[in-house]
Amino acid sequence: MSTPVLEITGVTKSFGDRLVLDGINLAISEHEAVALIGASGSGKSTLLRCIDLLEEIDDGDIFLDGEVITDPSVKPVSVRRRLGFVFQAFNLFPHMSVLDNVTLGAVRSGTMSKREATDLGRELLDRFGLGEREADHPDQLSGGQQQRVALVRAFASKPRALLLDEVTSALDPELVGDVLEAVREMKAEGMTMIIATHEMSFAREVADQVAFLHEGRIVELGTPAKIMDSPERPETRRFLRRLLAAGRI
Amino acid sequence: MLSSVIVLGGLALLVFTSSGWPDVQETFFSPDAFRTSFPDILRAFWLDIRMFVAVEVVVLILGLVIALVRTSLSPALFPIRILAAVYCDLFRGVPVILLVYLIGFGVPALGVTGLLSEPIFLACVALSLAYSAYVAEVYRAGISSVHRTQTDSALAVGLTNFQALRHVVLPQAVRRVRPPLLNDFISLQKDVALVSVLGVQEAFRVAQIDSQSSFNYTPLIAAAILYLAVTIPMARILDHIARKEEAKT
Fold this sequence. Notes:
The complex is a heterodimer of chains A (249) and B (249).
Chain A lengths: L5 E10 L2 E11 L4 E5 L6 H8 L7 E6 L2 E2 L7 H5 L2 E4 L11 H12 L4 H14 L15 H13 L5 E5 L7 H16 L4 E4 L3 H7 L2 E6 L2 E6 L1 H6 L4 H12 L4
Parallel strand pairs in A: 3-8, 3-9, 6-7, 7-8
Antiparallel strand pairs in A: 1-2, 1-4, 4-5, 9-10
Helix pairs in contact in A: 3-4, 3-5, 5-6
Chain B lengths: L1 H16 L3 H8 L2 H41 L6 H16 L2 H14 L9 H27 L2 H9 L4 H16 L1 H14 L11 H12 L3 H31 L1
């Protein structure tokens, strides 16, 4: 079996006294999508932030293409340039145009010339239905459009993997579809991704594996069908039951 | 509109018909005194302008450096952070006129020569110290007002800490604090007159000498007009720029 793109071994993380990640083990192969599900506060976002080195882990290791990235000698910036991160609240740069938002990373990190980045940025914006909006500022866009720009921004750096943190949670229901469509398209292109999500039907459709997080641990891992249709653990069953009751499945 | 005309007209009537008005007119608004004193004051005002510009440049840079130190999170900078805080407390807490006195008369008392015994230079140093402390706090407020998620987002697209600050945080911070920054500009432009206490022949000082030798206060009015001739257009121009920026975003 080939080296996983991302491998997480025994990762723990606390904020003060609160243990948020409690020995996480997970491997993601090339072209694979893993959905992280679980209640708010179960550690999904923190895990993604730790992978992108936006948080320091307390223990364990994270490997990117077989290379440890959680060692103090590794420069975080070199890791982040190989990963794409999309935030729940979009976090676009409000003082820049849509196109500049998309090209900033590549231009400033020197991985592409300004022209290359602009050409690629335009092409991607076009593809994801945002070609007309390249000169606009983020606040002129709907939430769904902003999140698609954020997806394009992360995708434009040709990352080894995309980390998607609840990318539809801040959107009005009618705007969710377009954003999920964009994710679907990126997945179809073979993008490796970890998706923290509350959209169960989407997880079922796009993910190759689903990991259920509960109190900082992955208590159950398997194919979407297995986790959602015949969960083994009582915590998983309880979580799914609650979602069902809330009409979220 | 009508009410303001009535109020202003009433006030004018009150002033112009008062028994002391002819005397006031002669001592404060004498056309002859204005004509004779104005050229000297105008020449002296050129020194105010040069001092203002020089100090403003120093203040904008020094203030930013202090603000960056104060807002940095690096543990290594802790001692410098304390120094920066003390600097702000100290130089904001002392009346500017006192600072001009202390530095203007204190430093030459050390027996130094050259630039350090030059009152104009020392006055500029005093003004720079005082105003960079104010401006540092303005910048700091701006920097803290940019949400932490903007930095996360900048790091996630592969920028270094410095690039995140330079391209994402500072542009937003400076834009937000432009009005208070402008306020400090105007305030500095007037406070340049404080250097007169060191005997520097700038506009206010020259006007004062003129009025004392002629027993007529008109030269002071002439100086006031010169200050206004700079501060009012400055305020309007910056308002205009701010409005244009707003229209753009």
